[in-house]
Batch of 2 targets.
Target 1
Amino acid sequence: MQRIFAMIKKEFIQLWRDPRMLVIIFFIPVFQSIIFGYAINTDIRDIKISVLDLDKTVESQNIIQKFTSSRYFINTGYAENISQIENNIQKGTIRAGIIIENNFEKNIYSNNTGKIQILIDGTDSNTASYILKYIQEIVKNFNIDKGSEIKATKITMPVSVETSAFFNPNLYSNYFFIPGVLAMIVTVVLILLSAMAIVREKEAGTIEQIMVTPLKNYEFILGKTIPFALIGFIDVTIIALVANLHFKIPFEGSFFLLYFATAIYLLAVLSIGFLISTVSSTQQQAMMTSFFFVFPAMLLSGFVFPIANMPLLIKIIAYVNPLTYFMRISRGIFLKGADFSILSQDFLYLSIISVITVFIVIFKNRQRISH
Amino acid sequence: MNLRNIKAITKKETLHIIRDPRSLIMGLIIPVLMLFLFGYALDMDVNNIPVGIIDHDKSDLSRDFISRLQGSEYFEIKFFAENFEILEQLLIKSQLTGILTIPENFSSKINNNQPAKLQFVIDGSDSNTASIALSYIEALTFEWQNKLLNQAKPFVEIIPRVWFNEEMKSRNYIVPGLIAVIMMIIAALLTSLTIAREYETGTLEGLIPSPVTESEIITGKIIPYFVMGIIDLFICVGTSYFIFNVPFRGNFLLLLFSSSLFLFGGLGFGILLSVIAKSQLVASQLALVTTFLPAFLLSGFIFDIYNMPLPVQTISRVVSARYFVTLIKAIILKGNGLGFIITELSFLTIYMVIIIGLARLKFKKEI
């Protein structure tokens, strides 16, 4: 016990010797969660458009007014011809062009259909589908209005949908992403720290010195791990506070449960970091290998891209990824106030992965010593 | 700058790379593997949303509506239930994304020409999926009632034309952006440890008495990694075109030229980190924090920059990947020529000059 304590002390001294590490470990997570909290936003507003009115009538002005007064669109100016719109889309200064065709008004009143051409930049398919959705909504409402106006009878919409969103009534994308950022930042910081841990001693040659001390294998590992685990808990606390106090993300569940999940998750992350450390002989290798883990872990965790959309083979990778479960638990606790019984399945899988990685570390370590 | 000295440093650094085949292989294979994995895996299109249904009405009309829902590719009916609580539990457990409730008097109200209300509850925690699902259900209901009313044609109709990515496939926009992100990360990862390593192992001392100047060391160190980066680019663009069938509409030479500018900036940034940090641990943390996450989140790769609040947009202006993501999408998808991308190119050039200049300024051959 005393020896573990000495080892922990040594690790902390080593870490704090470079004050920049202090900044990296505590300040950067705060900074990142704030930046990303603002940056990650899929609520699309203020889309720049340009309008070409070939009809120039009351009705065409009417519908243009509907577009420009909606909070989704900003009219950057009227275009004089189609090629001007095409050119601006090519340059990327507008996202969509709205072209009111000739005889728009005449067609409406003569029982024909008035036509509006929409030109959308599809490069960003997500934004494009939102633009299309907003335009359809506006046109739908225009149709309903015209219907009751022209036919002079109020057409009752026989069926309507009353919608309500649970857990995130205003559908803020912040609510979804920030609990994910928490899981992500903890992973990025800790994988790299722990992956570098043993390699650094190998490169500096100090590992031999440790080998000749009476320090046992498990004491060495624990001594190395406990400081990192502490850092992990502190980072989780800081980011959760930023999320709740600064971004006003509701924290419905229990902090204790989040810590419990963090503890299990850290077992897996630190084990993987140590595995990287034991199979690497230089810090460069350790860094590349950590990256090799972090990048897929992040993209295949459901952080941004839904796992349900992935092909089977990749789904399997996503399901053995510990970050997937930690992310789900983090979101569940934050937004849904989920308790242990609801999250039990995620906890179970996360624990299984953690236990397996810990066993691999123990096995690998025994091998290394017996050499 | 002496060409012979640069050659010597380049040769030394190349030997260093070759001697560590694992890092070499990772430098070349990671990008391809990433592109493969993510090109297939990343898809933001929303379909087969799992929904549960409570039908209190049990009439022909309600069944007709349900079958209309069932026939849509956007929804998948997972459960029928009699009461809300059962389905609510499943919603909390994320086994359902939406719950549709059809009230008892649904059909009688429609038949009596009174407005009938459907209730749709959605799990809002994934706001993107939720808002798309809501618009699907509204559109579907609108269509269904129009059929019911046997309504004449609408007064106004839209004819949408989507450019550059006609089918609005998310893969077409993710893959080119991914190439940019991968290049950025690889570039900084490759060089961020090179000089810190020499500081740590003390081999920089060996260079001090030698006639090689600081500029020559930096140039010599950048060249071999530049070659690796360009090979990565070729492999990535090839994969994108031949395997993912992402159209390539622009000029390849233009792409090569802008990628080179970007790569020099990225490699220079790695060197700068290395020089400032002087420790591999610090350099690696800095590289990951300053390139990986910003390139991923602040570059417009997935999240639209125009959507971000102004201060964050300003920060994104110093992320060089932002310009490269715009550029690569413009060249690959839009087929834009030099005239359209001159702003981005100038930013990349300025960035490169400043970063390499800073690295040169900060780097002194002393202990």
Target 2
Amino acid sequence: MPYPELFTWWAATITWSIVFLTLISIYLYIDSAKRRKQAGQKGQGAGKLVRDFAFVWVLLGLLLLYIVTIDQNSATMFAVGNIVVEILLLIYLWMNKSQTSG
Amino acid sequence: MSDQGATMKRRDYWSMDQSEVCKALGTSKDGLSEQEAQNRLDIYGYNELPREAFSGIRIFLRQFNNPIFVILAAAAIVAGFFAEVNQSIAIVTMIGLSVTLGFFNEYRAEKTVQDLRRNVSVKAVVTRSGKVSDVDARLVVPGDLVSLYAGDIVPADMRILEVKDMHLDESTLTGESFPVEKSASPLTLERATPQQLTNYLFMGTVVAHGTGKGLVISTGKNTEFGSISKTLARPHPETEFQIGIRKYGNLLVTLTLFLAVGIFGLNWLVGHPIVDSFLFSLAIAIGLVPELMPAIVTITLSQGAKNMAASRVVVKRLVSIEDFGNMDVLCTDKTGTMTEGNVALDSYRSLDDIDEPKVLCYALLCNSAVVGERIIGNPMDSAIWRHAIDNGEKDLVNPYVVLDVIPFDYERRMMSVVAEKNGDMILISKGAPESVLVRCSRREVRGESEPIAPVLESVKERVSDYSKAGYRVLAIAYRSVEKRTSYSIDEETDLTLLGFLTFTDPPKKDARQAIDKLKEMGVSSKILTGDNELVSVKVCQDIDVPVKRVVTGADLMTMNSNEIRVAVEEATIFARITPEQKLEIIKALKGNGHIVGFMGDGVNDAPALYEADVGISVDSAVDVSKDAADIVLLEKNLLVVSKGIEEGRRIFGNTIKYILMGTSSNFGNMFSAAFASVFLPFLPMLPMQILFMNLLYDVANFTLPTDNVDEEYTQRPKRWDIDFVKKYTLFFGPFSSLYDFLTYGIMLFVFAAPPALFRSGWFVESFWTEVLVIFVIRTRRIPFFTSRPGKWLTALTISCVVFGTIVPFTPLGSFLGFTPLPGEYWILLALMVATYLLLVDAGKVFFFKICKF
């Protein structure tokens, strides 16, 4: 592998950016839940929570895909993984299309 | 024409009597002839102030008055000094291109606005060759005889010839907050200050009440106002939009400052050359600052102003457009919005309920309308004259000579005249029934005068019945007076009630539709009227507009501030209110957190127009109202207002898109560049490459103002929410950084890229993600499928992406330090960018589910 001394650093930065995004999502979710509670609205169930965080699960999957494929230096695995994720995201977006139009 | 506006020969007009003034100005009491007026216009020029003229050079020079320009110039000098000639040339080229781009767009925007402003003109009532007519105030020349009425803005400096109870608000000129009484008498002064010249009227001051005539002595820049106009401009308070933009700018400047200083320090510490570190941190700072924001905002606003003009809405103050779109309460008067605004005299009843010519005759005498080729005056006085002319009854006034006028004012709500017939002097009063009735001790029935007290209640009941039937009512009363040289309001007592005038103003057919449309758009309408509550409620019933609560001026006077704040939320009609109470209502609504629009056209509406977040007037309004307004409608119609609101929301939407773009992908890119610079053995991108990318990104954004805005976005008013922008940045920024880091990995570990290849790969990825993400961010819907971007935005964005893609293969790319990329990279890049855009779209679903805006 070229630049082997940089791989750990690179893996750390990409991991950190995904962890950061996940933490921000959790923070925004908690903030929103607090405001809902203050407004007297009902809390959300665990199932809903899992669904709402769908894109975070995708992010974590991508992290795994990117680190493994770059480590293996496999362009094919990278391409296939991306296509699978894109299909999953398209399905997710199509299922949520009513929520993005208002 | 050699001089823009002028004075005749400078003389002490204040010390002359009227005939001397006429002689000195080469005119007479019939005014100038049209031919002479035209000659003087050729000599003295237009009566307009030399306001900051539209100048291409000024716009060009303004492009350099920008901190970014200073930073770039400093960077060019530093690079040149350290023999980085390529970098220096590249930076100077960036400066040239940025200035050219900014210049052409701002030039076009300012030209549009200037053309639009010409649609709103101030008129002056001028007598020429004995004929009274309205002329554009720009065409007034020295020697013109001008009549002035309450609410008029004085069009030029004048020497008063006739005056009746005339008080001028001269605060714009002298700072004096109380109206100043004027007279026509000569003054014996050696030298005089404007405050001492009580027989002068000064350009730009406002007739608070009373009437008068004057001869123009100076026009344009030779007036008192013209000589000091630059120091008199009253600053408008910042709009909510301006405050939001300022807060956003402060946030970015703080972030940029910390980041730039941190990057420079860290790069230097890890051993990068100091010049490279300096230029790199400067480039990152430039990349972060939305230097195009002022241009984008100006272009968006001017484009919107142009679109609004097509809906007959003229924007006088560009920055008010966003608040126009975001207002959630519209306060309006009744005439012309709820009603057709065509006031017609319906009857002129005696107290035994028959049409009595004497009532009409007295109403014609006690009348402020000016009858010339057209009838100029308030709607009710004009309606009386129109009726008399149409029915051949105008000769009723022939036996009378009007000797004196006690003008209308909003406190008395009435006016009076003193007329003579065959040596008998009679004072005639006309006004709001409640104002006239309290001054009556007798009534006239079939020519006989009787005490009014026994029937006062039934008379009041009759007025109430008229109002309930939707009529506007004026009472007519009179008394005999002694012959004197002048009369005052003290004479308006012990009157004999003669009868009533009733007026119709048909309800507007589309008023209900307009109110419903505004309601759909989240704007609640409130009626603020000087009319009584019964007429107002009847009008609302006629057009089927629900009335929740009616608050009168008298009610407001008994309320404390907390009660007023509740009342303004609940009530839909505020009747019989004074100008001060209009102001109080608007302040209370603003205090309750609303963005308030106020629509008015009367002299008493000017303070409220100024106080409201958005002051809306109409082209037929009195000068002072048009002057105070931010928006002028060429047609008084609430449906026109709703179209304007829609446009305002579209503009706000497109401005927000630019801001959200800048805070997501752009910010993320610069952040990852800064991060990488510390750990990589070389700079991830050269400063001139960052600047080039920044410039290309700016070009791609120029058509953003023309983008489509989703229908649901214009359905509700929006507010500036800096907290939302912060959350947006925190959430969407890292997506872009994530894909930058991924590109680093691919370039380093898959392609074993040397610095030039690494930079080329990252440039293309960074540019693609930065620019293409607009299609995701511009809508909450699914991009392209359920929300189509504007065609110009699509065309320019795609063109920029294509250009950015081929740059590494061109001589320009070589000059910038790029190198051609391998074919395999493009496949990986396409897959990566597709995943990125879909991931951001999925993030959008999550984000908007929990963060409302």
